[in-house]
Structure formats: structure tokens, C-alpha cells
């Protein structure tokens, strides 16, 4: 498990309803971080249906979901679970911490 946190951005750079991407250098995993009404969530930036970046799709702050632009699979940003076909498997959720006026995340899978 990685103990190294990845810097995403300054807190002021990720407003409610926005998302930012980051790259975990230790595990070579792309991560997308969301500001959902002042709560921060991070998911692996990879659709579980087909290996494609979720961040290219649409984040809907109202429903707290992101839709993969490739085939329309949707995922809950709070826990990564799949919300509709063609995805039946969720995506990995990662921890987020706020420290030194910045947002940090990491791939904490073993």
C-alpha cells in the first residue's frame, strides 16, 4: 500500500461541481478528484466497462455521478459503484485529504 500522497491541486483550484485529474507516481494509476458541494471524492480515472478515462466524460454534480463518454456507463462519485449498464463493476475509490490548503489523494490498494 502506498503511503505517499499525490498532490492534486490547491483547494482554491477545485470549486464545487468541478473535477481534476492526478497521476499516482507510485502505482502509475490515473485518479480523478471531485468537489461535490465541499466534500471531496477520488476515483480511479478508468471506466470498469472498457479501459477509458472517466474524466473525459460528464460529471453531474446534481446526481453525484460521472458518465463515461465512450458507452454511457455511469458511476457514483462517492463510492465508485456502477449505476447503469454497460458497466456492472464499480471503479476503485481512493482516500482524499486536505492539508496545507491543498488536496491530496493516493492509490491505497495493496
Report on the structure:
This protein is an all-beta fold and 110 residues long. The chain has one domain (6-105): Rieske Iron-sulfur Protein (3-layer Sandwich). The chain is built from no helices and ten strands. A hairpin with a 4-residue loop joins strand 5 and strand 6. It is globular, with a radius of gyration of 13 Å.
Total strands: the figure is: 10
- Highest-level CATH class: Mainly Beta
Radius of gyration: 13 Å
Number of helices: 0
CATH homologous superfamily caption: Rieske [2Fe-2S] iron-sulphur domain
Instruction: Give the amount of beta strand, in percent.
Output: 35-45%
Largest sheet: 4 strands, antiparallel
Main sheet: which strands, in order across? 2-3-4-8
CATH architecture: 3-layer Sandwich
Overall pLDDT, averaged? 96
Contiguous runs where pLDDT drops below 50 for at least 5 residues: none
Q: For the terminal residues, how far apart are their CA atoms?
A: 5 Å
Q: State the secondary-structure class.
A: mainly beta
CATH topology: Rieske Iron-sulfur Protein
Give the topology string: H per helix, E per strand: EEEEEEEEEE
Helix percentage: under 10%
Shape: globular
